[in-house]
Request: fold
Amino acid sequence: MIYEENTRDLILLEDITSLFRVDNTYRKNSLSLTASENYPSMLVRVLGSSLSGGFYHFDPPYDANPGEWYFPDSGSMQELSKKVSNIGMAIFEAETFDWRPNGGSAAEQAVLLGICSRGDGFVHFAHKDGGHFGLESIATKVGIKIYHFPIIEKTLLIDTAKLIKMVYDHPEIKLIILDQSFKLRFQPISKIASELPDSVILTYDCSHDGGLIAGGAFPQPLLQGVDILHGNTHKTIPGPQKGFISFSNKEHPMLIPVSTWICPNMQSNSHSELIAPMLIAFSELASFGGEYARQTIKNAKSFAAALSDEGFFVSGEYFGYTETHQVHLILGTQEKALDITTNILSKSGIRVNNVEIPGSNGAFGLRLGVQAMTRRGLKETDFKEIARIFADLILKKKNHLDATHEIKDILQEFPLFPLQYSFDHMLENDASHDLLREVLR
Ligand SMILES: *Cc1c(COP(=O)(O)O)cnc(C)c1O
Reply:
């Protein structure tokens, strides 16, 4: 009986291991060019499943006495949470850091619900201008009025004068959220912040460009007059799938309402097992973020220009195609973009997704991101090579087998371990293995 149970357990373990092996091989053999994903380092991956999973931990980002639902703690959770908060505040120039949101959507929804009530209004990016999808359904259901940013078509920037007029014409507007997930440029936030009335709260969702901000390639929103910075930690920030909310001022009157919406109103558990991986990812940014962010932007610019040279229609020629990790490639109809994604590119080992491209009158295409492959070590010339392979496959309709071989060769040169701009190199000595084994026991 005991023997049979052991065998069953072993079969289960083999089963899971083999699924992991398949997935790992897929990741290794994929040229990942989605704008919303990254390759986390080995420590981020390993620590995400260990230590404290299973124990609740949900202290708010301000001093509060233990009350109802206080859970005892060894002291370690408190210490880890303090460490992640300290480094979060340091890399985002913030006075508070709430690690609890279970993603960028939870963070933006807590900001909306904490600040606006039924009958109030808020401004964010329309879907056609790259706004995130996480706010409108909830606002409609609750009875919060939705306004969209006025955008200058040629530059893709917010028309500040029109925005300020909109805010004065509609006194019910309480909140402005910069929630672009299609993001080629940094918006003029210091100008917006300086002209807004004090009654309106300005927040910045950095789910996409958090790593570029932490690396110093973009200005710090909280130093530009933004009240709240929020977002997730797995796009240009190479961390676990998690989120955060930071205030520029720890005395801000909305700190408690927004924090209360995250937990306990929207979330009960906050995946506290992911604090350690967040801490590692932020530490990697603190150590290597500058170089990583600069190389990411150089790679995106090189990729965009090369795709255009090959004959593709790339968004944003007017401003040099991109200032971020993203490149927007316009392909045509939705059917065509989907066919290229699933039947052509993914068959050659290229991972992308097809989407409606902002500022293109409803055309579909690819929102490409170079951050993940930058972590594998690719540089500007490698992205020129990839642009050439895109042209062979899509424009010249060459056989995908040649491209598949070429992609394989590129990937072999840039393995998944050790990743650049990460602590992976630390794990190449035996002492670190002993320490990790201790954590996992
Ligand atoms: C990706 C994204 C989100 C959602 O993040 P999740 O972690 O998937 O919940 C929210 N806001 C913006 C602007 C995003 O780009």
Residues 7 and 13 are 10 Å apart (CA to CA). The pocket of pyridoxal-5'-phosphate is lined by residues 36, 103-105, 108, 132, 134, 179, 181, 205, 207-208, 232, 241, 243 (CB under 6 Å). The chain has 15 helices and 14 strands. The radius of gyration is 23 Å.
